[in-house]
Protein 1
Amino acid sequence: MPRAFSRSLREVAFFFGITFFVILAAFPFYWMVITAFKPNSDLYDVTNVPFWFNEPPTLEHLTYLFKETLFARWLLNSLMIGVCVTMITLVTAVPAGYSLARMTSRKGEALGIAIFLTYLVPPTLLFLPLSRIIAELGLQNSMWSLVLVYPTFTIPFCSWLLMGFFKALPPEIEEAAIVDGCSLFGAFIKMAIPLSLPAILTVVIFTFTLTLQEFVYALTFVSSSSQKPVTLGVSTDLIRGDVFFWGEIMAGALIAAVPVAVAYNLFLDRFISGITGGAIK
């Protein structure tokens, strides 16, 4: 009986602990949904309970976003920036991670750590020299400046991540492919890349998410509304002086956050496999 009681107590404690963290994680999405569909008369009435609808929901905030602002253009800009940065990161980080993983001396590990340390440099220290480069290239006030700048922090981390995963792949696989007639590059394409798809998918999700949520560089290099990504457009064009358009802000945040949340849930197993694969294979 004491053992059964102790087991039941642990199960109850585990259940309440999981419930607490689920509520903590889901509450921001719930708050965005509530605020995005509340009419202003309900939203700004301090006598109403803020946690549910006191009046019928409305679509006026979504209508305002798509008709009175450049929200659709901001979404398109973010998508284009994310796709371009992801492609640049993959083309650079995949061969870099593979090369570092196949270095037999300690120089490869030291070089990998040095590359990762560049990821830890705060953006507030880098945007001054980067702004000089952007000015020299004539990319001021253009979203293409972000395509140039964002790989400076996505490539180091992704190269380090892929290096750990490629180290977990036995080199005998590529050696066997070379014996069968493949070149070194052919063995890399036909053997290493297919076996590393979980890690590559992790890099894609991580890079796209990081570019979607970045704010400091976007605020520094882009000022025209037509060139802004969604994070910058929502947080600047929907705040005018001391007036916050909370309904529209939350609607924009909800639309930008839902696709990322869905992608993470659909590819969660592969994402975890890519993050931890280098440690357990």
Protein 2
Amino acid sequence: MERSPLANEHPGTGGTPHPIGSLGVVLVGAGNGTRLGAGVPKAFVEIGGRTLLEHALRAVTALPHAGHIAVVVPADRAAEALELLDAALPDDCTWSTAVVPGGRERHESVRFGLDALPDSVTTVLVHDAARPFASPELFDRVAAEVLRTGSAVVPALPVADTLKRVGADGIVRETVDRSALVAVQTPQGFPRELLAAAHATAQLQDGDPARQEAPPTDDAEVVQRAGGTVRTVVGEQRAHKLTTPEDRAILGALLAALDGAADGAHAAHAAGAAGAR
């Protein structure tokens, strides 16, 4: 198995320690999920008997190195999030964790999570708990590219559907060229200093009445508005985001497929071991 280009001073669960700078993950789960209509914040919606927050934590702690996790949730869910962390993390987990109350907007919640990470963290991954099945390999791929380039990095997929620009009356105005368009996912990765400086700039702009920009929708946009460069790596279909009730069914089917693949791999391994005896 190829060794991860990342490393840390602590070993990850089940992994081999290898030397790198410190990794921090801001796991964002402070959204209220209005469009989903589930009656609870999206991070606390269950798929397959576990909350999205628990699924996302399992992906992060499956990385072959350890680090620091700041989980950002609504203030009134902080105690519940702490209980979920205790239940979800294995006893031998070497990741340090913190639960942080979220802000009014997503970028404010990320800033609070970033501030909660130890000063030793040099590389930060920001991930939406609403993408519960993003693989550890995707986290690793993003972080490796951050370390290689010193830039912000986002996972992206080509846009498959034909895109139309539609007027308020529902009439199609034009077909949009999709060749230069991608769908961007999380985790998004950043050198810690770059992301912190970009969020500090965004905070100053929030207080400027002369600026009428809409709030940024992701951290890559925060960095771009501050003048930073954002690069892409290949994303993955399993990093699907829960937004609508239909997405809940998609994620349920995805979990069943992932569980089936894991069961098949375990059976093949057991058969191979038995044959070797």
